[in-house]
Amino acid sequence: MKQHKLKYPVEMMSKILDVSKSGYYNWLKSGPSDRWLENRKIIELIENIFEESHQSYGSPRMVVELEKRGYNVSRPRCGC
Fold first, then answer.
1. For residue 27, which of 4, 9, 44, 51 sits 20 to 30 Å off, Cα-Cα?
2. pLDDT over 80 (residue 29)
3. Are 14 and 22 in contact (CB under 8 A)?
């Protein structure tokens, strides 16, 4: 919704997506969630590890390397 609010009215998008306008505006004010921030950090780590491995690590080795660095992440969450 945020990306399209200049093109479409928030009221129309909220009806189509079946969400409340007030919920959308509360979400805008709240900022990024802790989970989103942690995911951004993990994505950055994954990109660094992938480059360090000369782009050879797949999800099994990526998960092991993330665990070595203190992150308990499943294969689906690491997005590999």
1. 44
2. yes
3. no
Reported as a pLDDT band with limits 50, 70 and 90, residue 80 is low
**Percent of the chain beyond pLDDT 70?**
99
And the tokens for 43?
């994505």
Q: For residues 80 and 75, what is the distance between their CA atoms, to the nearest angstrom?
A: 7
* DSSP track, 12-80: HHHHHHT--HHHHHHHHHH-S-HHHHHHHHHHHHHHHHHHHTTS---HHHHHHHHHHTT----HHHHT-
How far is it, in rounded angstroms, from Cα 63 to Cα 76? 10
